[in-house]
Amino acid sequence: MKAGYLKKIDWLDSLDEDERDIVIYGLRQLPLYVGIYASLILIALLSNMLWQSALYTAVYFSIRKYAGGIHAPTRLRCYCCSVAIVVMMLLFVSYVTIGAMSCKVSILMLGIVLILTGPVESINKPLDDIEQMVFGRRLNITVVIWVVTSMLIHNEMALKAIYIAILQLVCLCVIGIIELKIKRKDRSRLRL
User: Fold this and answer.
1) C-alpha to C-alpha distance for 87 and 168, rounded to whole angstroms
2) Residue 19 has pLDDT above 80, yes or no
């Protein structure tokens, strides 16, 4: 089925090899993202927290694509981790009491940490200087937009959704940095 599907995409032949690889990678990731988003919508509807989930998703995915950090090694693990992260967010938003001002200060502090740590490259996909600059600039702009937006919001549930998204992203970046250092250390040992 995959071969038949890819044969029908005639315009792939007009791309250079790097572009073709990127497009094919995107096409292979598409079912994963459809599954993640469908699961998010289903979980949000079942928990009666559609707008909170939509806000969380907007914050999380708009920053995640520029922040980098640790990634699950397989698509299935990525899906399972994504669903678990959303469930944690819904539980946090529903049951944890945190004041609006505490949320705003935490969002500001976590935003600063994201700007200082990101973008975090992967051992499998190191970022060159231009990518570091471009992703870093986009990350900074996106984080600043969400931090400023959170300062203007007075709804506690909305603030908690933004807070938990940024907290989770900081955790993924820090874990990604640690993982990268460990893997680089292991690779340098193997070379010796």
Assistant:
1) 12
2) no
